[in-house]
Amino acid sequence: MMNALPPLHNGHAPFTLQQLFREALYAFEEWDSELTEPIVTHEGRVIPISFVFEAMRECTDIVPMNIVGAVTERLTKPWEGEGPLDQMTFSTAARVMRVLVRKRLLATGAVDLVAVSAHASEDQSLD
């Protein structure tokens, strides 16, 4: 499923992947008490938000300030960026969001369900 997303180029994400990250963040914000992980769509494919965050783990691009605020407001400890501008990379934001998704899934007991679903999707793509 990871190969369904555009790849990074020397640590930089194409605009479509950055936009998908933003959509995944919004989907996380709207995630109520449902057991299943929210999804986004890319080129007609359904993608769990954790896959989007995982795809951005190595992205060195700087996150726009409105996204930084959406990520940091979910932290239990204050976040301080490196450097005078308190800049956050997509890599940092993606790692934070991936942990938050995992914690939510563990709290609802849906981790096993998502893991089975992800493997089933990969198996079907091999046919």
Detailed description of the structure:
- It is a single chain.
- With 127 residues, the protein is mainly alpha-helical.
- It contains 5 helices and 2 strands.
- The protein has a two-stranded antiparallel sheet with strand order 1-2.
- Strand 1 and strand 2 form a beta hairpin.
- Helix 1 packs across helix 2 and helix 1 packs parallel to helix 4.
- The chain is globular.
- The two termini are 14 Å apart.
- The C terminus is likely disordered.
Which helices and strands appear, and what pairs or packs with what?
Layout (H helix, E strand, L loop, with lengths): L14 H15 L9 E4 L2 E4 H7 L9 H8 L17 H19 L2 H15 L2
Antiparallel strand pairs: 1-2
Helix pairs in contact: 1-2, 1-4, 2-4
DSSP strand count: 2
The major beta sheet can be summarized as: 2 strands, antiparallel
Q: Which blocks of ≥5 consecutive residues have pLDDT under 50?
A: 112-127
Structural class: mainly alpha
**Rough shape?**
globular
Helix proportion:
40-55%
Q: Beta-strand percentage?
A: 5-15%
Q: Give the strand order of the largest sheet, numbering strands 1, 2, ... along the chain.
A: 1-2
So how many helices?
5
The residue-averaged pLDDT reads 80
Spatial gap, N to C terminus: 14 Å
Q: What's the SSE pattern?
A: HEEHHHH
The gist of it:
This protein is mainly α and 127 residues long. It contains five helices and two strands. It has a two-stranded antiparallel ribbon.
